[in-house]
Write the structure tokens for this entry.
Amino acid sequence: GQETVQPGPGIVLLFSFGQEVKEPHVQCVCVCVCVFDVSSGFSFFTKPTSEATYLGKMPAKFGMIAALQGDLDTNDGVGKVYFREDSSPDVLRRAAEHINRAFPEDDEVDPTHAVVITWADVATHEPHTRGDGAPKKRNTFQLVLASLETASYAIVLYARDGIQFTSTPAGDTNAVMHAGFSKGLVRGFLLSRQGPYYRTTTDEEETVRALAEETNSGQRGVWVYEIGTSPYFTNVAPGEVTDLPTEAPAQASGGHEDADARRPVYTDGQVEYPPYQVEAEPIEVHPVQYQPPGIYLMLLFSMFSVFSYNLGTCANNRNKCSQFADCRDYSSGYCCHCRPGFYGNGIQCVAEGKPQRMNGKVHGKVFVGNSPSPVEFSSNDLHSYVVVNDGRSYVAISDIPYTVGPSLQPLTALGGVIGWAFALEQPGFRNGFSIIGGEFTRQAEVTFVPGNEKLTIRQEFKGIDEHDHLAVSTTLEGRVPEVPPGSTVQIDPYSEIYQYSNNLITSSSTRDYVVSLPDGSTDTRTYQWRQTITFQSCQHGEAMRDIKPTQMLSVDQVFAMYDANNELIRFAMSNKIGDVNGEDLELNPCFTGRHGCDTNAVCRPGEGTQFTCQCAAGFNGDGRTCYDIDECRENPQICGPNAICNNQPGTFRCECEDGYQFGGDGQTCVEVNRPVDPCEEGTHTCDIPERAQCSYTGGSSYICSCLPGFIGDGRVCEDIDECQPGRCHQDAVCINTQGSFTCQCRPGYYGDGFSCSSERTKTQCETHRDSLLGVTEFGPRGPRPPVGQYIPTCDENGAYNPMQCHDSTGHCWCVDRNGQEIPGTRSGPGSRPIIKRPQFYSEWTHLLFAQSGRIEHVPLEGYDMKKDGAKAVLHLPEKVIIGVAYDCVEKMVYWTEITSPSISRANIQGGDPTAVIKSDLGSPEGIAIDHLGRTMFWTDSVKDRIEVASLDGSQRRVIVDTDLVNPRAIITDPANGNLYWADWNRDAPKIETSYMDGSNRRVLVKDDLGLPNGLTYDSQSSLLCWADAGTHKMECMNPGRGDRSKVLEGIQYPFGITSFGKNIYYTDWRRDAVVAVDRYAGRESDEFQPQKRTKLYGIATAYSQCPSGQNYCAVNNGGCTHLCLATPTGRSCKCPDNAVGCVE
């Protein structure tokens, strides 16, 4: 009673549940099924009996898998069933993810084949006499049969809004729909008997609705079953993970990832390593592959794409439309339509005339020429920019090695799709985004002739993200012919015809390109190009019916270049979409792109060659010049209560405050119920913070532990007397303090107590003075300077006297702390200059600070924070930014981040972020800039070292790599060639200094420190200041004199610190605020809390003008060939690590 067909290569067919079919030397499990009719919501392996024998009378007498079985109707022109056999790597990978997540204790599997079936918008079969006009309820669900050599699996998906009815007619009554597995009749020796029937629902309708709400695979609505294992292929085993993930997944308690590979995150001010986590990836659907009349099959895969549109009415689905779209009901469902001034598919809408950006990653393997080894792409950055009102697009892909970079130059197709998506539209024609929006799949096949090399380009476009950028993931697989290094590629203008049908767009063409070789010769080459674009459109309205079936994309001004120095490949091209006949009937500047409108404006054609420029939505101006509208400032309540408004060019985004999340409508922020942290609330029983630390462990639990320098159980801690023999220098005395101790040199000795000497180190002024006196002439009355020589005078502490005079000329003038003359203070002979306190001008000076995936700024008015001018200047989603620094010369902000450890920069006046250091980093934290020597310094608390590099990331060198445990804060004093850093090692915290080349390293402070998180240096007062989260103090010292003074006590949990004039500004984790401290008055003067209440990290002052001063590296790189690193009296020429041919 079984029917068989000839299996394809590597495929064994199984037509009876539990029956194995073999070929010689091959043993496989069913991957293809022969199906006669699946309109009832199941697939089967033998020809079924009539519906009357099984509807409402399960189990059936034939073998079947019931995804959701009932009397379903696919004849009304709406409900459809799609199927395909798919063994593509992407589909098999996603099937493996579902299976392995459902069976976490089993060995991981990798399916080799899959059959995919979808029931879309199927309705229950109803009598033809019904005429009440009510819209039909429709169900949508999917099934995948995945197999490998020794096992088969069924994966069933039920969308959350995809089950709208749970019963169907069965004779004169209604029967609850079934889901499960039936073997059918099993033949015995004499009689047949009913085989096993594994049912996943009951006769209660609630169990059918639960299919979309529950799981056995760890993901809502996804159900996984093992339906056969070698050698018997008879069992059905359900998935083992019935727990649903939370809305904001908590960290798992363990993982299998190598601990060295895990990245640190910040918790209580220090670094901890999170366990490995995996997040399920949605699976994209491939729309209709084949739909033969009367014969259907089933499919699974595309977790949400096929279900996210068209079900229900606007009343329940309005939030699925773009905020710039209106929802419209139709008899069979609803559609979203972009409002005037916007374009797209309704789900995604963007403003007319506004430039568009695309960001994403590139993965895959590409072979070059005859090379046996591929070049691998792993998360290479892809960025694109389109000036929509003239159709010009730009694409750049980073980290392209020289072994493949030149050979990718012909492939303008890598970024050509965004040119099509936002092409300049000719009258009556529409570009890609205006038709299908930003969610689609594009697959292109490139065949090079005559070598027949083939390359597959697959791109998943995931829509507009929260930063208004089109997100894309690109995969490259295959081989390209080699283009020799140093060659250039010229691509002539070309045209490509796009053919449009329901949910499918195709195009093909042949393109020539000319390779100019390094020897001056040229080589004309050709490749054939074919692509398909699949998408999900709204089927209810008229929008798709108005699209012309063929349109032509015209591409000219094509530019391709590989930048070997920066390992970048760049493409640029101009794109127009219009008539297939190529008729250029319209010469209006709006259709040629030669109009002169602002890049943020749309060109409106008039009669003949007349036109007007109109600023895009979200911008103001005359169209020739457009300015961004700050919607958040104009309407502070635009996002509603408990929400934060983030202004972005041309638009804005709403985020919920910390402790809130979006509710079911996707717009209202509702409170998140979280357990109370006794450590944060102060309800714990630990000793006082000066002696103990409270560590929250989840729920209502916490741990008390004594701080270093104390002993006890954490609830009661007593001081340890550290003054044991040998603690201090022999010429110093030890003084025990609470939790620590101090060493002080005895009278007549100088030093920090750990090292004491009878001779005091000379200050800068004393060194300057004595160096001049050392070359003086000797006369009858002892040494005297040469005639006309100026000799500086120093005060009792060795500092420059504020007023300096020339003994020979009688002129006097004021100097700064470096001995530099203050302009405008010189007086003539016989008079004295008026000494005034230095004035600080802060126009346009502002503070930069890092917070949860962004860098924000607060302008300063005088020394006061201008809070109403605060806003985010850089959005860096999913990044944990730690350190921030500012280059006052090029107006660039630099930052460190630890999620994917790197150091990056961006122009503060607008520009894309660029990573300058991405390799050999563990946890980069503090960062500092020498604006004179054009270098940057950073600390790494995993590598336990301090490094320096040029500002572009080149010339990299380790300068300190010993005796560091938890280095974090770092600061430069460029004018004096000094470097300062803090190490918050709990066992021995310290603040150290060295010259900028790492020499003359010494400890400045190691007593009475807890967690010195932040450092700042004020060049005007020569004070080094720090904030300590352990002692809860802010202190300062003059590094040259060693004196130490307290600025403020009782601060809570400082992290970063910076200074400007009389104020010190610090970020506080407990207060989620930037706090201003008047260091002269010794009190807090102001506080700024950003709208988004999360932890603040590093902070820096962005000066309107660079601080005064010079060092030896400021001119001509100090005469050095590589790194020039300043010292107090000169400079060191240093070689980068691993440099070849460099001599120091």
Observations:
- The mean pLDDT is 80.
- The chain is about 5% helix and 40% strand.
